[in-house]
Amino acid sequence: MGVTAAVADVSFEVNEGEIFVVMGLSGSGKSTLIRMLNGLLEPTAGSIEIDGVDITAMGGKELRRLRQEKISMVFQHFALFPHRTVLENAAYGLEVRNVPKQERLAKAKKFLDHVGLAGWEDRYPDQLSGGMQQRVGIARALAAETDILLMDEAFSALDPLIRREMQDLLLDLQGELGKTIVFITHDLNEAMRLGDRVAMLRHGRVMQIGTAEEILTDPANDYVAQFVADVDRTRVLTARSVMEKPIALVDANGGPRAAVRVLREQQASFAFVVTRDRRLAGVVFAEPAAKAVREGRNTLAGIVEDGLHTVDPDTPVAELFLPCAESPLPVPVTDQGGKLLGVIPRVTLLTALGHLSTNTGDFPVVRDEPASEESGPVSEEMSSASKESGSVSEELIADA
């Protein structure tokens, strides 16, 4: 009686190659949880499976092998050996596995280079700053070449500027190496920035598991809602979160009649031009398109304006204000292959912090065909924000 459960009814899966963040205040059960994940603490009930194997059923020798070959750990206070050089510290995980000296030193040097410590191999920990010492800790974990990294408040002992640098480093390394990472933190902004998914703990219980966006925009309960109330949404929400469908698209291989028809139907003054595989080719405006029709031209050659400023779908909202302010058109969102995913009108961006648009589905592309005598209805999906560049005048359409 009188016993408090440090972790209770916690259940989750961590996907291969993701950063899974466990977030909670002091006393929420984070440290207990991570120590169970590598077998340092044994749960009183339940199981912990790694690649389908329950580690709670392992003996001491098997657990030691697991920690040497499968799981590496990065600690809050670096846990470096003061009497060993940077290179020797980075190679320690391989040393306990009896990897030959030259091989382990070569691997350790490789990962020291990865974390930006080339040339510091012969220094000692007390000759390094806190951020550099933590880089050694990360290099040591990476040099062990385990599939899983457990990071227990790894950056919390660092000052804010160095902490952000370390977050950037971790994201860069993850993009290159694709490790499976369980990251423990009490800092909500850090959790939101790093986590592919975040588990929020309170008194040893999971309040919610989801992406940063899901937790921010759809909190599971009042506790989570209050917790995220002061989060800087501009650093969490991305272009993908706020983009909407473009109201007018035409095929790059089509002609001006198709462009004029879609402009008339959508009551828009411009249309984005895309290829058959939806790569963004540029934008066509109403007046040049109508003029091309009057001149009997059959292609869009010469009237498509390219050089549009595009943004990546993962661009934080905080970085969208300048391109949106500088562009008279909605800013196109494209993937690395140039495929048009959506657009961000200014008004949509300004209202995004209060309301999240989820209009991200596929959108139709109008191909070239003879112009209809009747104007089609204005799309129900079109928002007033997307019309911000004005509508086509009736005289212009009549001339076409």
Automatic annotation (TrEMBL):
Every ABC transporter domain range: 1-228
Record keyword Transport present: yes
Region of interest (Disordered), ranges: 360-400
Span of the signal peptide: none
Keyword Lyase: no
The entry's keywords: Amino-acid transport, ATP-binding, Nucleotide-binding, Transport
GO molecular function (one): ATP binding
InterPro entries: AAA+_ATPase, ABC_osmolyte_uptake_ATP-bind, ABC_transporter-like_ATP-bd, ABC_transporter-like_CS, CBS_dom, CBS_dom_sf, Gly-betaine_transp_ATP-bd, P-loop_NTPase
Feature: compositional bias, Low complexity: 379-400
Organism domain of life: Bacteria
Family: Belongs to the ABC transporter superfamily.
Descriptive protein name: Glycine betaine/L-proline ABC transporter ATP-binding protein
Native source organism of the sequence: Actinoallomurus spadix
